[in-house]
Amino acid sequence: MSDVPETRAAILAVGSEMLGPLRQDTNSLWLTARLEEIGIRVVRKSIIGDDPAVIVRELETASSEASLLISTGGLGPTADDVTAAAVARWLGAPLIRNAEFVARMRARFEARGVRMAAVNEKQADFIEGARVLENPRGTAPGFWAKKGECEIVVLPGVPSEMREIMEQSVLPELVRRSGGVVSRRRILRIAGMGESAVEELVEPVYARWKQHPVTILASPGEVQLHLYVRGEPDFAETTVRAMEEDFRSVLKERIFGGDGEDLPSAVGRLLRDAGKTLALAESCTGGMAASLITDVPGSSDYFLGGVVSYGNGAKESLLGVAPETLSSRGAVSEESVLEMARGARERFDSDVAGAITGIAGPGGGTPEKPVGLVWFGIADRDGAATAKRRYFVGDRTHVRRSASVHALELIRRHLVGWKSPDA
Amino acid sequence: MSDVPETRAAILAVGSEMLGPLRQDTNSLWLTARLEEIGIRVVRKSIIGDDPAVIVRELETASSEASLLISTGGLGPTADDVTAAAVARWLGAPLIRNAEFVARMRARFEARGVRMAAVNEKQADFIEGARVLENPRGTAPGFWAKKGECEIVVLPGVPSEMREIMEQSVLPELVRRSGGVVSRRRILRIAGMGESAVEELVEPVYARWKQHPVTILASPGEVQLHLYVRGEPDFAETTVRAMEEDFRSVLKERIFGGDGEDLPSAVGRLLRDAGKTLALAESCTGGMAASLITDVPGSSDYFLGGVVSYGNGAKESLLGVAPETLSSRGAVSEESVLEMARGARERFDSDVAGAITGIAGPGGGTPEKPVGLVWFGIADRDGAATAKRRYFVGDRTHVRRSASVHALELIRRHLVGWKSPDA
């Protein structure tokens, strides 16, 4: 570990439109993640309107809590856009129109065959003494200025422009200055089991790495473990790798993927590597599992298709489920789900097929088959077929989402040939 | 309109966990929407850590910009939870442990067969002089206090608890005080056309209602018009109704629904009312349209099912598309989409069937059939079948989502028997 003190950052989102009930400030999440990676901790976030007095007051407050301020928004050409003027006022520096930049802007507009409106000239008003941060994706440049021990980075609010300026001009400089202290994060992703079951499994490992924060995050059908180490690059990398290995030693094949890879992509990779094809039969999930699979670009290489057999008629005519099975066992049963899986495999002539049938609610539950009960089936070209049952707690959306993810996880486990003792 | 000045509110979310890159503060969006409905405007939002000095400073800053402060979070039993103490410090009031409340808490724990931990007693530390807001869903009560002209409402961070206290104790009181000034909002929802096309249509109406804010919001496949009127209840209601009528007079059947009803529900309502059934055949959307339809509880009453015919084999075997059509015209063509729609209608024996085939990208585009091209087909039991083509701009996710929504909109227009001149 390192003794270099963490830089504390504050993020200001400027824009009255973000104070309504409909817009979320997403820039600050991205900024927080990127800053955290280089060891900078965000201690304050605020959203304020386009009012110079309010902006100046917020800069005062924020600068008492953080040594790096990052503002987004309010650099546009309209009268509403007052961030540059407010920052200049806070710094005690004048705004000076840059004639050369006006000419460059005009040339850029003309290259697109558009006459530049007079209001745009305002975007060439530079804060004296501030470093100008070029904006390759838009008109308004950013600024980087210093006031005492505090620094401020002023960025446009358009996410793509903000990100580009950060990546090109701001983050590399911050890394250089950090004296080599960085953060390393690893994400381990697990499906098919609940948060508490994961917690129980990893508890002994967790205890061994107490000095580094490990966060457990749950979403419908998925649990993520975030491992986080701060220090010099070698130390951070070695440590996070050792942590990962330790967690993997107990979680084993339960981990479907790491940082970048989601479950549909992991399933797709396994199918592609094995040269196998997949088909699906869905009842309660109504196409959601197929939609997840086909979210992945190139999924047509291995996904042949699916049947959404919402009514019993479709289960019979399109999947070949026997009417007697449906009448004697019900549509939500081990027998039905196995026939659905076999039927889908045959109709699509796929190597593997998955089937889902359950009660998503809010209606349709009975004491024997309550809302949340879902049967999963998998059929293979070699004739093997397995069924599993699971109860999901939550509303219709949650049950459908959890069941869709769970189906993909069972297909993944089938593909890697892993028999879990706990799912 | 009314001359009562708008109350300005500031929202403070307290909690270090919300300063990481993974958590979004969602309470503030809900609060903003509910406050706006009763004519209170949010002018500032902030997220700060669990640090008393920081909280006090933020209350200072916020109270200079707003006369109503609402804080969420930091009322739990652990050492981290310091909001009540910080607010008390800002007010200059002591925290006093309420013995009666301790006894009540203990009784509640015991009723659940759990012994109350000693740390929980902290949640009985009341701010002297503040009104205590009962929390029917949790342990920590809220507070309502006054400092000069400024009022502060202190709420727990758990969304369900925060909402319940607002609905039960805070909002009714704020309405009473507003001197009868309220806000009325109407949402008109439109699918099947772009934002600029909607803007062009409504421009003359828009101009007639300049004094009341109208916001246009676009999401993939959908455009929303938000009409907003503030004033006395009768005035606000009459005016927003007149505005709505005026907008409806130009938008006509393009409006699929209002405030609460989304497009899948609107389609479901039309099918149910007409006693008709629906089936789907999807290629590029991969089950997303079926998933949207089946998100609606009770959709099994009218949705028979769908085929996700991702490969050409499935288009032939499960939908009966002729191999010659696929080879001569291609899977993304007017002829193929019509055969898909007819095939789905016959296989499921539904009254109506919709079909979607297109190129979602990023691969698979050609100069004649670029990424974003999608064909839609609708077949009816009476033998009628129509096809429409559309180009969507955006990435794979955007094209798939837009195409799924567009398909539902075309089905809706078919059901209401409306021939649009522009979509």
In a nutshell, what does this entry contain?
In chain A, 39% of the residues lie in helices and 25% in strands.
Describe the protein's topology.
The structure is a homodimer of 423-residue chains.
Chain A: E1 7-14, H1 27-37, E2 40-48, H2 52-63, E3 68-72, H3 83-91, E4 95-97, H4 99-111, E5 125-127, E6 131-133, E7 142-147, E8 150-155, H5 159-177, E9 182-191, H6 195-208, E10 214-219, E11 222-231, H7 233-251, E12 255-257, H8 263-274, E13 278-282, H9 288-294, E14 303-309, H10 312-317, H11 323-329, H12 334-348, E15 352-358, E16 373-380, E17 385-391, H13 396-416
Parallel strand pairs in A: 1-2, 1-3, 3-8, 13-14, 13-15
Antiparallel strand pairs in A: 4-5, 6-7, 7-8, 9-11, 9-12, 10-11, 15-16, 16-17
Low-confidence blocks of residues of chain A? none
Q: How many domains, in number, for the residues of chain A? A: 3
| Fourth CATH level, the homologous superfamily of the largest domain in chain A | MoaB/Mog-like domain
Order of helices and strands of chain A: EHEHEHEHEEEEHEHEEHEHEHEHHHEEEH
Number of helices of chain A: 13
Q: What topology, given as strand order, has the largest sheet of chain A?
A: 2-1-3-8-7-6
Report the sheet-strand fraction of chain A: 25-35%
Over all CA atoms, what is the radius of gyration of chain A?
28 Å
Describe the oligomeric state of these chains in a short phrase. homodimer
The top-level CATH class of the largest domain in chain A is Alpha Beta
Give an overview in words.
Two copies of one chain form a homodimer. Chain A has 423 residues and is an alpha/beta fold. Chain A folds into three domains: 7-177, Molybdenum Cofactor Biosythetic Enzyme, Chain A; 182-257, Alpha-Beta Plaits; 263-416, Alpha-Beta Complex (Maf protein), CATH 3.90.950. In chain A, 39% of the residues lie in helices and 25% in strands. Chain A is built from 13 helices and 17 strands. Chain A has helices spanning 27-37, 52-63, 83-91, 99-111, 159-177, 195-208, 233-251, 263-274, 288-294, 312-317, 323-329, 334-348, 396-416; strands spanning 7-14, 40-48, 68-72, 95-97, 125-127, 131-133, 142-147, 150-155, 182-191, 214-219, 222-231, 255-257, 278-282, 303-309, 352-358, 373-380, 385-391. The first copy, chain A, has a six-stranded mixed sheet with strand order 2-1-3-8-7-6, sandwiched between helices. A five-stranded mixed sheet of chain A has the order 14-13-15-16-17, sandwiched between helices. A four-stranded antiparallel sheet of chain A has the order 10-11-9-12. In chain A, helix 2 (52-63) crosses helix 3 (83-91) and helix 6 crosses helix 7. Chain A is elongated, with a radius of gyration of 28 Å. Strand 2 of chain A pairs antiparallel with strand 2 (40-48) of chain B, so a sheet runs across the interface.
